[in-house]
Write a structure and sequence with these properties.
Blueprint: E1 2-3, H1 14-22, H2 34-47, E2 51-55, H3 58-69, E3 75-79, H4 83-86, H5 91-94, E4 99-103, H6 112-118, E5 130-136, H7 149-161, E6 166-169, H8 173-180, H9 184-188, E7 193-197, E8 208-212, H10 214-226, H11 235-247, H12 252-267, E9 273-274, E10 282-286, H13 294-303, E11 306-307, E12 309-310, E13 315-319, H14 326-339
Parallel strand pairs: 1-11, 3-4, 3-5, 5-6, 6-7
Antiparallel strand pairs: 2-8, 7-8, 9-10, 10-13, 12-13
Helix pairs in contact: 1-11, 2-11, 3-10, 12-14
Length: 340
């Protein structure tokens, strides 16, 4: 099968498996796992943050950030199709007791003026206080769109002028950095906390990182424990994460090239249109002109050895990654052309 459902399906490399086998471990709840400490220290330096913490998943990382920044009864501002709002099971409300205030962005990018106007008046007892502003870069549902640094800078300035923290869901942040040629630190500097995934394009088997100040991370560790995320001999999963950070970042450019190749090939198929500007490793395909729904199209693809996911009635998402070669991309284009 040519699995283009998500970059989460990547398998750990031989080097990652060997690193897990040889990892020196200890009890992380006691802060005694040397491999995990090494991963957290290295991740903090990459982000330009004071400290970092390993978490089992990106969703848990985002939720810990919300819980650490906010108080129950507050409100968080975020883009209307952001992962935190769309795909995390209303956890911000279930766990943190905060409500979302969504802003419809342009390709996942919120207008700073609209964000400023959405901040609540703290003197009005009828409304919740704005406790946090969340950004997502790259933006998943917008098709892996890169949120421009200048946009992040403007929103960060607005937030800090009103003493509101900013959290970045940077699950695919390294994709943004590689695509623009910028350092990850440049994106992280306009945040108070940031989460990125080791288990997507970087190919590690499990885990994400949260970065922030030492005070923030200390408080976040308690929330991780409360959520059942306290880890024991976690060096076995931290070691592949170190390999991912050291060997898998620059090769993300290959995924971006394959995504552009896929988009170009599929766009030439009659009845298929490409919805997004392919910035990184995600391609959104619309099947409406072909007269078939996204679910029907996905079933057709599956029968022909291709896996993808539905993103709407006529929208299908394809995601390129380490385990899909250029040859497989060409094969997928050929199969879709034959099918349609």
């Amino acid at each position: 099968m040519i699995d283009l459902r998500s970059d989460t399906v990547t398998k750990p490399t031989a080097e990652m498996r060997q690193a897990a086998f040889e990892a020196v471990v200890g009890d992380d709840v006691y802060n005694e796992d040397p491999t995990l400490i090494e991963l957290e220290d290295e991740a903090a330096k990459i982000l330009g943050k004071e400290a970092a913490m390993f978490v089992p998943s990106g969703t848990q990382g985002n939720q810990i950030a919300v819980l650490t920044h906010c108080q129950s009864g507050q409100e968080i501002i975020l883009e209307a199709e952001s992962h935190i709002y769309y795909y995390e099971g209303a956890a911000i409300s279930a766990f943190a007791g905060v409500q979302p205030r969504t802003i419809i962005g342009t390709n996942g990018v919120m207008d700073p003026h609209t964000v400023k106007n959405a901040v609540r008046d703290v003197s009005d007892i009828h409304v919740p206080e704005t406790g946090l502003i969340c950004l997502e870069n790259t933006h998943n549902r917008a098709g892996g769109t890169i949120v421009p640094l200048e946009n992040m800078k403007e929103i960060y300035s607005i937030a800090h002028n009103q003493q509101i923290p900013v959290h970045l869901d940077g699950a695919r942040l390294f994709n943004a950095a590689i695509a623009t040629g910028k350092d990850v630190k440049e994106y992280a500097m306009y945040t108070d906390s940031v989460q990125f995934c080791l288990s997507k394009g970087l190919g590690a088997p499990v885990g994400s990182i949260i970065g922030g100040t030492k005070t923030f991370i200390k408080k976040a560790r308690k929330w991780r424990k409360r959520l059942g995320g306290g880890l024991r001999q976690a060096g076995i999963i931290a070691a592949p994460g170190l390999v991912a950070l050291r060997t898998m970042v620059n090769r993300l450019a290959e995924d971006h090239q394959n995504a552009k190749l896929l988009a170009s090939g599929l766009e030439a198929v009659k009845g298929i249109t490409i919805e997004n500007n392919v910035d990184t490793n995600i391609v959104l395909v619309n099947t409406k002109e072909a007269g078939i729904s996204s679910i029907e199209f996905i079933e057709m693809l599956k029968k022909n050895g291709i896996l993808a996911v539905s993103f709407g009635p006529n929208t299908v998402r394809f995601t390129t990654h380490f385990d899909v070669s250029k040859g497989q991309i060409k094969d997928a284009i050929h199969k879709v052309n034959r099918l349609i």
